[in-house]
Request: fold
Amino acid sequence: MNEHERLIEQHIPRLRRYARALTGEREAADDLVQDTLERAWAKRHLWRRGSDLRAWLFTVMHNVFINQVRGRRPGPHVALDGEAMELPERAVQADRLEIRDLEAALKLLPGEQREVLLLVALEELSYQETADALGIPVGTVMSRLSRARERLRRVSSGQPESAILKVVK
Reply:
């Protein structure tokens, strides 16, 4: 295994976690990671040595995901093994309920806000790395993150969805 393969391999767990959060399904996440790794390997000559490989891989994953969403045809999706999405096992029932509620709240976020929130909060990318990965300005990252956090606060506190809109004079 060469150096480039080792560098990419160490980022696979983070790619899987982000893909799982984006897609919400284990099978779809595995497919997304596989497609990302194939694209990254084919385009490895485009990565600049010395730059952040993790951010570059997330950029590749973002582009692959967007292409998949655009190309997706509406229709039923049937999992081959029939398994439901597996949640991490927790020792306390309350923890499982919190995870379920957080997962449901994340699904309520628009895709743009969810992507930014996951990259900054879950993957611990900086605002600049997130902006580079998504191909948007840093200010857009900050505003999407702010709106995502506010929406999550409202949903988790039980405030109605309509309360998110503010009256501006």
User: Anything to note?
Assistant: The helical segments are 3-9, 12-23, 26-42, 53-71, 93-108, 111-122, 127-134, 138-156. The mean pLDDT is 80. The domain at 89-160 is CATH 1.10.10.10 (Arc Repressor Mutant, subunit A).
